[in-house]
Amino acid sequence: MKNKLSGEFRFFMSMPRLMRLVLMTNMIYAFVLPVIDIFVGAYIMRSSDNPSMVAVYQLCVYTGIPLTFLINGFLLNRFNVSHLYSFGMLLSGVSMLFMMSLSIMSFTGVAIAGLIMGVSFGFFWANRDFLALDTTNDQNRNYYFGVETFFYTITFILVPAIVGWFIVSSARLGWFDGNIKAAYRIIAYAVIVLTILSSIVIHLGKFRNPKQKKFIHWKYDFLWYKFLVLAALKGSVQGYLVTAPAILVMRLVGDEGSLGTIQSISGILTAFLLYVLGRTAKPQHRLYIFAAGIVVFFIGALTNQILFSAIGVIVFVLAKVIFMPLHDIAYFPIQMRIIDVLSVKENRSEFAYIFNHEFGLYIGRFMGLVLFIYLAFYVSEEIALRYSLLIIATIQLLSIPLARNIIKHTNHTIDKVKNDNPELEAPKLEI
Which CATH number characterizes residue 92's domain? Predict the structure, then answer.
């Protein structure tokens, strides 16, 4: 075992230094994301007992993200990408503290907190995506995202269990005079400490900014429009995965301790599966990984719809824990391969595609959350939680044939670019 671990560490150290620094930064920040994704929603539910308020919060988060992508594009002309990246991480803790300082949980206060968190995510994801694209190539991206999602999955096991235990224990054992909000504030302070550590790591390297300053374009290659449809499908499910699970657990299962425990049940096997996939899978295997994740998610949503009970919620959350990393480990390398070839073909900044991609995600997120809010307000909460998840999961099945067509179109475009420009030096287009 020791020799195996040493071998894996040597393999990690054989990767480019800048790629390792980005990975280490994301490994630290991985301990923050579960708190934001899971317990912010639970905090709003505990304080307001209103699922629609959780949905409004998420809608504001998702509104702030693309707007910040736009601002980030202009700021990249004046500030280094690593500075903007670390600023986004630090701002996530500020958003949590702001929400927990609200004396009354109102739609206005929740919306403002959501916008601040959206700005945080915007700076984080815009610069994280560019750094991941710029420090990797098609041959090591499976490994990069395998390691990254391995740590994300591990932290989604450990952090929910620890934080859930901490919150429940503070109430049961009378810590902080039984004030659960005080426990949440301590968690927010811990988030800030972790974001400071991750910011220090990213500043250990010298990263380049996008070469071209122009990043707003109105016309793209047809391949990119296909991928934007895939992005919208991905976005449509994201709003539910950070909203519905917390509400389902609080309604049908129990408290935050249950929430943390359920998130942890299937995560360990999934984490090691992801690492093995990232270490051994080739670019041609991405479609199979992508399809497997979507099928698992559909099965979980169908089970929740049929049972709509504590058992159904457990099955759904287990399916979610498996689906998210499997989907991402395939989706992001497909996206970056497309950006590799189109940035050469259209002679544009890579950030132009990263920026435009976010609006494809936003359209999907907006449509998914609006569906949830409409059903919760005008039909019933049960219908929103029971049937809309299955609707979203069914729509996701369309992603499989679309992704297959996109991969085929991408390979054809690479061949065409090489044939039309034999003198062009484009190392990232090499197979």
Answer: 1.20.1250.20
